[in-house]
Design brief:
binds 6-O-phosphono-alpha-D-glucopyranose; alpha/beta; six-stranded parallel β-sheet; globular
């Protein structure tokens, strides 16, 4: 049977639904947002597959315990989700998720350390790594169990750095499983990855190489992985064909850029609620030009340098004083980590400092809103003249795709060359080095003064590119890769 018809079993740390109590205290499912959930939910539903995810909230844990085996079928407006919750004791989960995944791997893959002082590894991080591997083992176990319950042979789609060693652990349990692992982040190149303790680095790479196919959003990350894999003893890396041979198996390294779904976003943008929100934002903007950024409040997103670049713009081009406003819509993220709490304060302080320096005559240069508010973000997408997307490093960045789909002013995208999205959209954006605030300021100025015909050309180009790569293609290409692997293995089995 072709992989394209096989049941899909998806694994990700954050699942498609999470349970939170409503006002009356009753647990209600809340659907996770974002392209990943949309893409994979569609695919699991059409193949009767399911989703294995961590129980992240107390509500998830309660629901999983009530179900006995962690299996929950959740009916929502957007369909039924078959979820298997993996329940981990909170202290172990903390070391796996906060310490290793978000505190170390995320930092490594996005080049976030200030290496003069951090990181410092020792016995504690060694033990935390053991817990990370243990949680990955729990996932592998749950995946193997769910696979065994299927009437047809399933395929496994494992997501991201939280579950990097699942492929190898799952392969130990199900040697002939078809496994794809997808990294939604960048991945560190060999020199930077050498910061990790040797055991951690080797187990990480060997863990990923348990898959049949490793997917990335951009060529740059796939290349980094291939170069890093060369440092693992026992690997043979074929750069030209983008393959690795490890422990007698051949692993394909592939680039499949994810996309966004245009229709739901455009439908939301057309609702009366969004019209009201746009009017409200429009009143605040007045006659000024508008720069917008929409991000998780995340170290990688480079919010502070974005504000500094705005300051440089106002200093180098004082003609913009009073004539342009900057709206930053930020949703809180990972506030458990001290670095994130400190960064949140820094972002707010920087905006305040700029407002203090430049405000006058009723003009508010920067407005920051820290709140999860998808509707307001889509409303702001409608109104920007410049969309600033300047992450230091980013696996893909979907804001760069969402904005152009609903913008109504032929707004210009100023985009970091270190975002995976640059590989797809770069030719219609103004590319920037995100560390260079002068270049960023110049790019914003260029965007604000760009002739109308050029703005139109670029804005149309951007939405055309996004629409030309529907979200469904992302899943399909991964399954086609796995189908090729299946056929190759079947041919080999026949010969031997
Ligand atoms: C990135 C990662 C995802 C993660 C998301 C939100 O996009 O690639 O795996 O789920 O950030 O982070 P969180 O830690 O809140 O799940």
């Amino acid at each position: 049977m072709s992989v394209l018809e096989a049941p899909l079993i998806v694994a990700s740390n954050r699942g498609p639904v999470t349970f939170e109590p409503d006002e009356s205290g009753e647990l209600r499912p809340q659907r996770g947002s974002g392209g990943l959930v949309t893409a994979l939910t569609g695919a699991t539903q059409s193949t009767e597959g399911l989703w294995v995810a961590a129980a992240m909230s107390d509500g998830d844990r309660e629901v999983a315990a009530a179900a006995g085996d962690g299996r929950v079928d959740v009916d929502t407006e957007s369909g039924t989700f078959n979820v298997r919750f993996v329940v981990i004791p909170p202290d172990v989960y903390d070391r796996y998720y906060n310490w290793i995944a978000n505190g170390i791997l995320w930092f490594a893959h996005h080049y976030l350390w200030d290496t003069v002082r951090s990181p410092v590894f020792g016995e504690d991080s060694d033990r935390a790594w053991d817990d990370y591997v243990e949680v990955n083992r729990e996932f592998a176990q749950a995946l193997a169990e769910e696979g065994a319950r299927q009437s047809r042979t399933p395929v496994y789609l494992v997501q991201d750095y939280q579950l990097a060693v699942v492929p190898r652990l799952l392969r130990e349990l199900v040697p002939d499983a078809l496994i794809a692992h997808f990294s939604h982040t960048p991945i560190a190149g060999p020199t930077y990855l050498r910061i990790l303790p040797t055991r951690m680095r080797d187990e990480l790479l060997a863990g990923m190489l348990g898959a049949d196919v490793l997917g990335f959003h951009s060529e740059a990350w796939a290349e980094n992985f291939l170069m890093s894999a060369r440092s693992l003893p026992g690997t043979r890396v074929d750069l030209a064909r983008s393959r690795v041979v490890f422990e007698g198996r051949e692993i394909l390294v592939r680039v499949h850029p994810i996309s966004v779904e245009a229709e739901p976003m455009r439908a939301l943008a057309a609702t009366p609620r969004l019209r009201r929100l746009r009017r409200e934002l429009g009143r605040w903007r007045g006659d000024a030009k508008l720069i917008v950024r929409v991000d998780r409040l995340e170290l990688t997103k480079n919010v502070v340098r974005g504000f500094k670049a705005f300051e440089v713009l106002l200093t180098r081009h004082p003609e913009w004083i009073g004539q342009v406003k900057f709206l930053a819509l930020l949703s809180p993220s990972r506030q458990v980590l001290p670095e994130y709490r400190a960064y949140t304060k820094e972002c707010l302080a920087e905006a305040e400092r700029i407002n203090h320096t430049f405000e006058g005559g009723g003009w508010e240069p920067v407005r920051v809103r820290v709140k999860e508010d998808h509707a307001r973000a889509v409303a702001a997408y409608g109104l920007y003249d410049v969309l600033l997307v300047n992450p230091v490093f980013d696996g893909m960045n979907l804001v760069a795709m969402e904005g152009p789909l609903v913008n109504r002013r032929h707004g210009v995208l100023v985009l970091s060359r270190n975002a995976g999205a640059y590989g797809r959209l770069g030719r219609y954006a103004i590319g920037i080095n995100p560390f260079d605030v002068r270049e960023t300021a110049d790019a914003i100025h260029e965007a604000l003064t760009m002739p109308q015909h050029e703005r139109v050309r670029r804005a149309r180009g951007l939405s055309r590119l996004v629409l030309a790569n529907p979200l469904s293609r992302w899943v399909r290409s991964q399954l086609e890769d796995l189908e090729r692997v299946r056929q190759r293995l079947a041919r080999r089995a026949q010969v031997s």
